[in-house]
Design brief:
heterotrimer; A alpha+beta; B alpha/beta; C alpha/beta; A: alpha+beta; two-stranded antiparallel sheet; 4 strands; 11% helix; 27% strand; elongated; B: alpha/beta; Rossmann fold; eight-stranded mixed beta sheet; 34% helix; 17% strand; globular
Chain lengths: 93, 281, 388
């Protein structure tokens, strides 16, 4: 890490951590959220929903940055994220 | 709701305020792009600095025609192809309203083609959001005026031989002041374009190329909705200000997206008022 | 063109039927007219296009008649009273929106200036061939209100009544006139503004989130709201429930269509209007409407001179049809004579309501010359001789 320059405003940068909310029974299993989550938070589950679809599962919750892309790319209004916390940035992270 | 039964707090999607949740789940198939067009629209609504009570949505008939029924604004589900003249009546009768027409390619460009041309020519201050899925999906997948050449549909079983409509070119020629096209994949850019289009005085058009995962995709063996989204990912190219004559969409060919037209022309109501004032002295 | 007629032209004028119609509309508070030019309805548009801005109304010439009625329906939901004007070929194009207007229960007025058909027919000659199209032209089941003026004065009066009925029953109302009434010029008296009876639609005033666009009162008429007031309502041309949401099942279909049909049928006694003359002791009653009624007056006068006992019944509302009255009369008289400028449309309605108690004779009445009147006379005489 010695090669990495430490940004002068590092202490001011906050990294958002999101929490995913999912209403499984609305999901029709299109897979858009899994495919387009930029941080690979989601995976297709083996579970069947009430309607017989495979809803996504939050496989890597700690990676969610609350970007909101899953919310806007979901055609079923079934998934969204909220801000859980903001953590201090660090160059090691 | 299942969640509530399990003793958890019932969770609310952030868009629920602007959706008719009592009508969910909606009728669109798994992997259909219309739902994404709606989320982009609702997301855009939240960014508008405008009283949403003063906005109404008018749809025609077809899969996209059902949008009006899911948006929680004053909304009208009208006849096939006639959403634009219905909206024109609303706008002319009360210019304080923002009027959005949300409908499909067959509705707006085929049966409603003449209304599309004349609303653009008059520069009626409405925003048209046109979801183009290349097919008549509600009726089971018949050939549309937007179906790319050689594509199969139930009524072009040997491949389509007609030249499809180039919608942005049509809109530009007719006089639209704002024309953009995105695919259902470009949600953020789409959302931004919808905001711009609604804020733009005059006739604005946002075309959304969207997967029909049930008919167009299956009959042409293009996979599921997600496969069509992947295709958009690999084959769409952003070219703002591209001359609209280059925007025809070929079968499984490159799709040019972007904002193509953003110009000023006097609107119908403005011209009408100015002209009457001059004529009547 | 610099014109400023002021507002309602109270007083007596020499107006054409078209001018009277436009003035009637404006006097009724019509705030929106969308139209497409077609002979012989142009003079109404021309008058309106000169006058509308004095009333703060909106006029737009659309790209076709399909769009005119669509625009009218949209405008009606903003709270404006809205109207379109056309003739047979344009009226044919409007049929899908007659259906939408019925289904969305949207008040509006459609003026159809009748001409010969089918198709282009003779644009400049009067026709009454649209009577059944008025009643049945759009697909599905519904009821309509159709008024038929026979003079410029009635063009004024009935245009106002058409707006009143459309507002009262939340339904499209048609004024069925013809080339001759639209073009003839006669004295028209416009009352003082305060003497003109105006009925406004009933507005919902409850909590915004509780509004149901199709919840009915005891007359089966739902209350309205305007777009832009925060009610966030939805309406659809699909079969729908009280909330305006599409529902695909037999119960909803039945409830929906029953209401649309019955709000007119059950109130028909309040809507039906006709005019009778010398009906007591009559052996023959001539049933007519619109311009034809004028030739009937002349024919009846001539035969009365010969001692024939003949009465007249003029339909002012063609639809709903005065079924009860025709059935009553059929008990007492020998025959009905029904002249129309068509090959027989309303005559079948008369025949149906006569229930075999009296004969019904149709007269094709083309008004081309005096033969029109003598055809009516001949038929009256034939009816009396019983040589049907």
């Amino acid at each position: 890490m010695s090669n990495v320059r430490k940004p002068y405003d590092l202490s001011e940068i906050k990294i958002p951590r999101g929490e995913i909310h999912l209403i499984k029974d609305r999901c029709k299993g299109c897979g858009f959220c899994v495919e387009y989550c930029p941080n690979n938070v989601l995976e297709v589950s083996d579970e069947f929903s009430e309607k017989g679809y495979h809803p996504p599962v939050v496989a890597n919750p700690e990676r969610c940055l609350n970007c909101g892309l899953c919310e806007i790319v979901c055609p079923e209004f079934a998934i969204w994220s909220t801000l859980k916390e903001e953590v201090e940035a660090s160059i090691e992270g | 709701m299942a969640m509530a039964e399990k003793g958890k707090v019932e969770e609310k999607h952030p868009m629920e305020q602007l959706l008719r949740m009592d009508r969910m789940p909606h009728i669109w198939c798994p992997g259909c792009g219309i739902g994404i067009s709606v989320t982009a629209f609702v997301s855009a609504l939240k960014k508008l600095e405008f009283d949403l009570n003063k906005m109404c949505v008018v749809s025609g008939i077809g899969c996209t025609g059902r949008v009006a029924g899911y948006i929680k604004l004053d909304s009208f589900h009208t006849t096939h192809g006639r959403a634009i003249p219905f909206a024109t009546g609303i706008k002319m009768a009360n210019p304080d309203l923002k009027v959005v027409v949300f409908s499909g390619d067959g509705d707006l460009v085929s049966i409603g083609g003449n209304h599309f041309i004349h609303a653009a020519r008059r520069n009626i201050d409405i925003t048209v959001i046109l979801v183009n899925n290349f097919i008549y999906a509600m009726t089971g997948g018949q050939v549309a005026p937007t179906t790319p050449e050689t594509a199969y549909t139930t009524t072009s079983p040997f491949g389509n031989f007609e030249t499809p409509a180039n919608i942005p070119q049509l809109a530009e020629a007719a006089g639209a002041v704002y024309v953009a096209r995105w695919t259902a994949l470009h949600v953020r850019r789409l959302e931004k374009s919808i905001v711009e289009a609604i804020n733009k005085p005059g006739f604005s058009l946002v075309e959304i190329v969207a997967p029909c995962s049930m008919y167009y995709s299956r009959i042409n063996r293009l996979g599921a909705g997600i496969d069509m989204m992947r295709f958009y990912h690999e084959n769409s190219i952003i070219k703002h200000d591209e001359p609209t004559e280059n925007l025809a969409v070929g079968y499984q060919k490159q799709i040019i997206v972007g904002k193509f037209i953003d110009r000023e022309r006097p609107g119908f109501i403005e011209s009408n008022r100015r002209w009457s004032a001059e004529a009547k002295g | 063109m610099r014109t400023n007629f002021g507002k309602v032209l109270s007083g007596t004028h020499n107006f054409s039927g078209s001018e009277a119609c436009a003035e009637g509309a404006l006097s009724a508070g019509c705030g929106f007219l969308a139209a497409y030019p077609i002979v012989p309805s142009l003079e109404i548009l021309e008058r309106f296009s000169m006058r509308f801005s004095d009333f703060g109304a909106v006029y737009i010439q659309m790209e076709d008649e399909i769009s005119t009625l669509a625009a009218v329906l949209g405008a009606a939901w903003t709270g404006r009273k809205a109207m379109t004007v056309t003739s047979g070929p344009g009226f044919s194009l409007m049929m899908e929106h007659v259906g939408l207007g019925i289904m969305l229960e949207t008040p509006c007025v459609i003026v159809d200036v009748g001409r010969f058909g089918p198709s282009e027919g003779i644009p400049g000659k009067p026709g009454q061939g649209d009577v059944m199209q008025m009643r049945w032209g759009s697909h599905g089941d519904y009821e309509v209100i159709v008024l038929s003026p026979n003079s410029p004065q009635e063009m004024f009066d009935l245009t106002i009544r058409a707006f009143n009925l459309s507002e009262q029953y939340r339904t499209p109302v048609m004024v069925m006139t013809d080339e001759t009434v639209a073009h003839m010029r006669e004295e028209v008296t416009i009352p003082l503004v305060e003497d003109i009876e105006i009925i406004q639609r009933r507005y919902y005033k409850g909590p915004k989130d509780k509004y149901l666009p199709f919840k009915r009162d005891e007359n089966l008429v739902p209350e309205m709201v305007d777009i832009g007031e925060g009610y966030r309502f939805h309406v659809t041309g699909l079969t729908h429930n009280e909330k305006g949401y599409p529902i695909i099942d037999a119960e909803t279909q039945e409830a929906n269509v029953h209401a649309i049909v019955n709000k007119i049928r059950l109130n028909s006694d309040k809507i039906v209007e006709f005019e009778e003359d010398n009906i007591e002791n009559a052996d023959v009653v001539v049933v007519s409407y619109g311009i034809t009624s004028r030739d009937v007056s002349e024919a009846v006068q001539r035969v009365r001179g010969e001692g024939v006992r003949v009465g007249t019944l003029r339909l002012i509302t063609v639809w709903p049809f005065p079924e009860k009255r025709i059935t009553q009369l059929a008990e007492k008289i020998k025959a009905f004579v029904v002249p129309e400028i068509n090959y027989g449309q309303i005559c079948f309605e008369v025949e149906r309501c006569a229930r075999g108690k009296a004969e019904t004779l149709s007269v094709f009445h083309d008004r081309s010359d005096d033969n029109g009147v003598s055809n009516i006379i001949d038929t009256i005489k034939r009816a009396l001789q019983g040589s049907v």
